[in-house]
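Re: the 229-residue chain
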Amino acid sequence: MLTRKTITRLWGALFLSLSMISASHAATFTLKTIDGLPEGISSDVAGVLNPQGYEISGEKGAVAKIWLTQSSPIKAEFKPTLSVKYPFETGEFLGAMEVIKGTKFTDFRGQTVKPGVYTLRYGKQPVDGNHVGTSELADFILALPASQDEDPKPIGKPKDLTKKSAKSVSSNHPAIFSLQPAEEAPEAAELVHEEKDEFWILHIAATGSVNDEKKPVPLRLVVIGHSKE
């Protein structure tokens, strides 16, 4: 007859084995640089984008491509707070993204983002009862359908920004991607895996401009993964 201690050990071994199997089947993603802008963006948007982009691929091929602007304005006297780490203005144009057809791609809320081309703009999480506990950080990038966002000038009204972004996911909520704190700009773009939250983070240096001076702005953008809330 099996003793209680033996049964406990067997269950423990089974749990460990299942955990190892689950880990071995976790999705893996890679990053590479690409040249050329996506189709479906306006000439004005194309004029401010860096033609060198970044392709994120899974085991079955590319899932998304991302381009940053050649330069984005940043606040001159910006000082980070506990929740806001990035020196951008709300609605500021930061780049573009293409979601590849045939893949399932989700935002930070787990909402499915339809295949297509999107513009990327900076936004802050609202301080209201609907967002309590969803994230300690307020910095996000919002995806907007490129067909409805043809002017790279800032979108000053947060309501207009979120309304346009919501069309990316056929929802009342915008399509959002979390910006995690970044202290140093990497020498080259890299895709970093954080096992704790199962995040795949694009760590990259954007180019900021203030008073006609350009300086690197390190970004850590969660491209794969979503909030547990």
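The radius of gyration is 20 Å.
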